[in-house]
Structures are given as C-alpha cells and as structure tokens.
Amino acid sequence: MSKVILNMHNITKYIFDAYGKPIHGTDIKILKDVNFDVREAEVHILVGENGAGKSTLMKILGGIIPYDEGSMELFGQKVSFTNPRQSQEMGVGFIHQELNLCQNLNVAENLFLGRELTGKVFSNKKEMYKRSREMLMRLGFDIDPRTKVKNLSTAQQQIVEIVKVVSYDSRLVIMDEPTASLTQAEIDHLFEIIRNMVKQGISVIYISHRFEELKEIGDRLTVLRDGSCVGTIDMKDFDHDKVVNMMVGRTLTKMYTCTHTPSGEEILRVENLRIGRDTEPVNIHVNAGEIVGIGGLVGAGRTELAKSIFGARRYFGGRITYLGEEIHGQTPRRMIERGLMYLSEDRKIEGLVLPMDLVCNISLASLPRIFKNTYIKKAVEERMAGEMIGEMGIACNSGHQTASTLSGGNQQKVALAKWLVTNPRLLILDEPTRGIDVNAKAEIYEIIDRLAASGVAILMISSELPELIGMSDRIYVMKQGTISGELTDRGEFRQEVILSYTLTEKAI
C-alpha cells in the first residue's frame, strides 16, 4: 500500500456571519468532522451532490479558505494555509471548474503569470513563447501561445489551465470537473496525461459527476453528503446504484422521465441556415410538446446555431420561421417578447448575475411586466420569484440570498426559473445539466418533461449521450456547422449510432 501524503482529520467549517465570525451551531456547519486522505500516486475520486461540501473541502486544501476545527497533514507536515500561494508552494495544484484565466492575456502570459521571465529590463516574451510551446507540445496540445485566451474555445481554455498547473511541478493536483468542456478525444488525452502524472508519483484528487469516467481513471472514491463523509470505497468495488444511494441517501428509481406527448403544431422551422460563411446549411424543426436533442462534439456548431435562432449571433443566409411567421432582424429582446428563450451553457457568465439576489435574477427577463412608470413593482416581483423558488425546489434561505452562494445545481434552477416565469413557447437548453450532481439532474429532467407535457417546445443541446437518449423525442447530430444525422426512431437512439454521425463527412 502506498504511503498517505494527505490526511485531513475531523475537518469542520462553519458558516460565517456578516462580520466574518463563525456562527457555531450544529445546523450551520458546511463541513462536519470530515476525514479524507490521499495516497501517493493515486487518483482519488471525490463525489457528492452540489452543496455536499466538495468545493469547500478542496478550497481548504488549496489555501482559499481556512478550516475552523480539525487538523491537516500534507507530505508529513502539519499545515493550515492562509492563502493559495502557501498551498502552491507545498506542491498543491488546483484546476478549478470555473476557468481562472486572464481573458485579455495570451496563452504564454497566462502560463507564466506571476513568474514572468525577464530580460535586462522587460519580460523576455520570446523565451516565454518558446517554453510555452514546449510545455503545450510536451502534453500533446497544439495551441499557439500568442493567442489571447478570450479567442480560445472553452475546451482549449481548460487545456491551458491543465498545462499551467502541471508546469508548477505540483505533487498533488486537484481537478474539479476537468472534462466538462472537453470532447471525447480530449478526455482520452487528459486521461493519458493523468496516468503519466501518476507514473511520476503525482497524486490526483478528481471531482466529477460523470460516472462513466470514474471507473476508468480512479483508484478510490470518497462520497460526501450534507457536509459529512459517507464513506470511501475501492474502485474495483464500484457499483453505480450504491454510490448514488450514498450520495443522495435514497435510491433514484428512474433518472429520465418522459410523460409528454408531442403535438403536430410546428413551433420552429430552420431552413438552409448557415451559421458560418463556409458551412453547409442547417435544416431542423421543433413541434409543440416535443423535446428535440442536438448532439455532436465540442466545436460542431451547436451553440452557434442556438444563438443564431435566439438573435444573439449573426448568421449567413437562410430562413427562420417561428410560430408560423418568418422572422427577420431578431434580437434576444424581441425573441423573449415572443416567447423564445435561451438557457446558456455558461450559467455564471451568461445565465446569472451572481452578486444579485435570487429575486432580481429570476425577474430579469420579465422586467417589462413588473416595471411601472419609473419603478419596479417590488411586491409583484417578490411574489413572482417566491412562487418560482417553491415550484423549482430551489434550496435557499430566502429570495434575498445572493446567487453566488448557491450550489451549482440550485444556480442552474435559478437560471431556468428566470425563463420559465415568462411562460415560454420555445425553450432552447444549452447543456442544461453541466456540472451538477445526479440528484439535481433528475430534478431538472422532471422540470423539462413537465414543460414539454404542458406544450412547450424544447430544443436541448447536450454532450452527455445518456441524457440525449433518455430525454429526446428526436435527435439531430451536428458536425462542422451542419446536420450530419437525424434520428427519429427511439430504437435507433444508441450511443454508437450518434457517435457514428459525429464522424461522417456527409451532411443530410
């Protein structure tokens, strides 16, 4: 058995009051006597529902926040970090789920941020570019180090984060949902990098909600629930249902609910739409009460198509017919007024205003309804938001709690509630369950099914094939900006069939 390099013993973290002092009480502990250890050269999986305490525990290890009670030993030393630099100097690297890059700097400047190579007077950019390219190529990534990060795809930005942490010679690396924005080929490559890291004696704490990945990459798995450690199992004893039960405290009998019946009323028709100057045309349609899935690899053009329909992106020819009327010069505001809504894949930047409270976030898309003369009808706003909080099952102290303090799953519910309060006719969902736990996923699926049963047309983009298969009435597959396949028979809804359309060169 490998030696233990990290031992977190009885770690407890309290909620703090407005003055920064811990509020002591059994009901307000974020973490409750958590015991967690990591061995040398192992991949230790950490799972749990959103809000279970995973991020808090890792923030303690990363030096972002201190613990209040307990003890922590790292590489044989008793430690208590007060800032991230102390953690980093001890050999801990942290790859956050939310990208932590400077968007207006290029790749090389991000990789060397805080440790710039200097010449006689100025930074030695030529040498930084050279070393950055070497680091990227060493890990098998062909990204120009002169490219500004804001011009990279989400997947490419994730790769830069990984390379940055690996370049610090970290001995223990925390990876928080590292594959959320990666294609399958990039995931395979990442797993190869992780295996090479382990061969070099590096340990990895791997946080993920994607169960299909866990057995392939993990050695042990620890489950957190409600701030407490439920247990640790060896991955050779991994059982999906058992782990789910450990996470939620009950058995989820059915993940996907499909009780809706699509009607023949056509809500949306897209004809010969070009999302790029050189792409082939896109043709799709969506009926009332129908869930139409859109699959494909990252970069296939799914989000671009969704934003083009919503009016948030320019397209290059074609026709969009909505509610029987061809639309021109659409903008997000005009489409919202007509009942067409778009739930972005990036809830933290495009879906929510994190410093604002839940009431304000939920009412954002409905301001014309609650705005009178020069002021907002607060009573109406409060009542509307309160009803949605109850209906969506959003776990919060009150409607005046800031969105930033919620778990990922509850943030997603708030982002969705913002659109549902408008009574949409067509709802475009872009990766609606990305980065949320299995229980929150089941709740979101129930909401989606309920909306479809009420007659709402739903266009759902998803990179998770089980989700796409389990929820969709029809499935389009995209590749290189166009439709490469359409599945209309549920008997055809198999992962291998969908994947085959991501590889074909022929558009339909």
Could you list some keywords that capture this structure?
single chain, 508 residues, alpha/beta, Rossmann fold, 3 domains, six-stranded mixed beta sheet, 18 helices, globular
Write the layout of secondary structure elements.
Blueprint: E1 4-14, E2 29-39, E3 43-47, H1 54-61, E4 69-74, E5 77-78, H2 84-89, E6 92-95, H3 107-111, H4 125-138, H5 154-166, E7 172-176, H6 184-199, E8 203-207, H7 211-217, E9 220-225, E10 228-234, H8 240-248, E11 266-273, E12 282-287, E13 291-295, H9 302-310, E14 319-322, E15 325-326, H10 332-337, E16 340-343, H11 347-351, H12 358-363, H13 367-370, E17 371-372, E18 375-376, H14 378-392, H15 408-420, E19 426-430, H16 438-453, E20 457-461, H17 465-471, E21 474-479, E22 482-487, H18 495-503
Parallel strand pairs: 3-8, 3-9, 6-7, 7-8, 13-20, 13-21, 16-19, 19-20
Antiparallel strand pairs: 1-2, 1-4, 4-5, 9-10, 11-12, 11-14, 14-15, 17-18, 21-22
What does this structure look like?
The structure is a single chain. With 508 residues, the chain is of the alpha/beta class. The protein has three domains: 4-248, P-loop containing nucleotide triphosphate hydrolases (Rossmann fold, 3-Layer(aba) Sandwich), CATH 3.40.50.300; 260-339 and 424-434 and 457-508, Rossmann fold (3-Layer(aba) Sandwich); 349-423, no CATH class. 33% of the residues lie in helices and 23% in strands. It contains 18 helices and 22 strands. The protein has helices at 54-61, 84-89, 107-111, 125-138, 154-166, 184-199, 211-217, 240-248, 302-310, 332-337, 347-351, 358-363, 367-370, 378-392, 408-420, 438-453, 465-471, 495-503; strands spanning 4-14, 29-39, 43-47, 69-74, 77-78, 92-95, 172-176, 203-207, 220-225, 228-234, 266-273, 282-287, 291-295, 319-322, 325-326, 340-343, 371-372, 375-376, 426-430, 457-461, 474-479, 482-487. The strands form five sheets. The chain has a six-stranded mixed β-sheet with strand order 6-7-8-3-9-10, with helices on both faces. Strands 16-19-20-13-21-22 form a six-stranded mixed β-sheet, with helices on both faces. Helix 14 (378-392) crosses helix 15 (408-420). It is globular and about 70 Å long. It starts with a strand and ends in a 5-residue tail after the last helix. The mean pLDDT is 87.
